[in-house]
Design the sequence.
């Protein structure tokens, strides 16, 4: 039976999944004196993907996790958030990321490569004597014995802990075991994204902004990463034939050009810079009323996968990590602590999921809905988006635990 050395007379907490949510949970727990074993099925603790947006609430979590300085050193910082109308090529709404923004929310709005963020978390975890990272450890079963949790991996290893936190993603086997194996849902959007060195992007196509071009059932987005050294460019379009579990279609230059044929010229000029070596189908799930059972709890996408449209997927996992460690601090009543975690987080995460879905409908509006969107957004004050998402970002001075329980 493989276990890490005990602290406070307890077994370690077992975290299933070594992505952003899982490593953040390990860090948060270790900072509260808990020993943690992280079980990751992949050979390496690396992240596949491209850019990730980090609004101010993420930085409240980074502060709680002790990685704030490391993140701030490598992030890029946009001057504005921009929503553009793809067919016309015209910006219909923008808000500045300025001193007033920082004064209101405590931190800037930042941009990172997903791999950079995970590396920061992994490096911090490896530096902790309380965290054990196990790779090539695919979990195949678990059992809650009332006073402990037993976990078995595919290669025949057995682990025992005081509790298990499942950060095993959208297709979580733990979630399926606890709450049923319902498939995630998709609106059929396929996304391609990647990064290119900034010096490969013509100055006429570069912008120190987060820009989302919304079109009829398609979008294109771009923003700088890694201290402004690389440029993240991605696009998505709807394929109504896709169903949950579908393999992403092969996206070619010809298909992309066809889908974006009615985009404004300056947007079509960005298409050759999009990496087509891999594509993803975008999924979410309806809000789940319960995330835990006994000594087992869900975290991140295992609990509340959301669409990408308000950039809160990773943020919610980071908040989960901080809150679950807070709830477990100083108690041996694991089940009660998990119920407290669930109570603090379920409604906020549900509202994030629903709000993100609504923003996606706005971005992808068709016909008169698009015209209405453009008309209404053009009349908004620059601060309107910040007013709408103030409950998400949290006020300056509020810590992560407080912000992470805010619903309105």
Sequence:
């Amino acid at each position: 039976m493989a276990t890490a050395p005990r602290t406070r007379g307890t077994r370690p907490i077992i975290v299933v999944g070594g992505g952003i949510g899982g490593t953040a949970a390990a860090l948060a727990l270790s900072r509260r004196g808990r020993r943690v074993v992280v079980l990751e099925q992949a050979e390496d603790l690396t992240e596949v993907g491209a850019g990730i947006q980090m609004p101010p609430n993420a930085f409240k979590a980074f502060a709680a996790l002790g990685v704030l300085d490391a993140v701030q050193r490598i992030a890029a910082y946009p001057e504005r958030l921009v929503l553009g109308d793809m067919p016309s090529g015209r910006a219909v709404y923008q808000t500045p990321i300025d001193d007033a923004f920082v004064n209101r929310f405590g931190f800037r709005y930042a941009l990172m490569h997903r791999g950079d963020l995970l590396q920061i978390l992994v490096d911090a975890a490896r530096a902790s004597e309380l965290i054990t990272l196990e790779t090539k450890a695919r979990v195949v079963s678990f059992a809650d014995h009332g006073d402990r949790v037993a976990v078995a991996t595919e290669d025949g290893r057995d682990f025992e802990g005081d509790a298990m936190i499942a950060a095993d993603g959208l297709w979580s086997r733990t979630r399926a075991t606890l709450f049923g194996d319902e498939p995630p849902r998709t609106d059929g959007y396929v996304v391609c994204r990647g990064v290119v060195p900034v010096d490969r992007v013509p100055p006429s196509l570069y912008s120190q902004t987060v820009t989302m071009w919304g079109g009829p059932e398609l979008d294109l987005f771009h923003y700088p990463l890694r201290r402004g050294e690389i440029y993240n460019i991605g696009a998505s379009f709807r394929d109504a034939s896709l169903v949950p579990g579908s393999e992403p279609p092969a996206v070619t230059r010809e298909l992309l050009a066809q889908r974006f044929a009615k985009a404004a010229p300056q947007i079509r000029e960005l298409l050759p810079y999009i990496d087509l070596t891999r594509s993803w189908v975008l999924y979410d799930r309806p809000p789940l009323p319960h995330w835990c059972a006994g000594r087992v709890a869900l975290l991140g996408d295992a609990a509340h996968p959301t669409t990408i449209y308000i950039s809160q997927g990773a943020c919610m996992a980071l908040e989960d990590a901080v809150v679950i460690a807070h709830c477990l601090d100083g108690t041996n009543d694991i089940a009660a602590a998990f119920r407290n975690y669930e109570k603090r987080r379920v409604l906020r995460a549900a509202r994030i999921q629903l709000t993100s879905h609504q923003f996606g409908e706005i971005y992808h509006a068709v016909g008169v809905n698009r015209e209405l969107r453009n008309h209404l957004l053009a009349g908004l004050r620059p601060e309107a988006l910040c007013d709408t998402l103030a409950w998400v970002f949290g006020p300056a001075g509020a810590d992560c635990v407080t912000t992470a329980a805010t619903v309105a």
